Structure formats: structure tokens, C-alpha cells
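Give me C-alpha cells for this 53-residue protein.
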Amino acid sequence: MGFLLAAFQAPLAAKLIDDASWFLAVVVALLVATVIIADDAQRRRPETADYAE
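Here you go.
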């Protein structure tokens, strides 16, 4: 959800601000989204079974 808000905010900030500081918000949002998705995928993996031999 936060990434979508940052994605909609970025074009507006790009028009209002002359420098590229708005790009930092987009990069941070992408980084956070990647970490959240990777963490969620890791948590949903089935646990490995230990077979006693």
C-alpha cells in the first residue's frame, strides 16, 4: 500500500521539485516492498521434516 502511495506521489513531486530528491522516496519504497515480499514468501514456506533414521 505504501509503495502505491509513493508511486502516485512521485510524479507530482517531480513536477514541483527541480532536483531528483523525489526519486529517493521511490527507491526506498521499492526496497521496503522487496523486503516485505521476501519475508512473506519465506514465512509461507513449509517447514522441513526431520526424518529419524
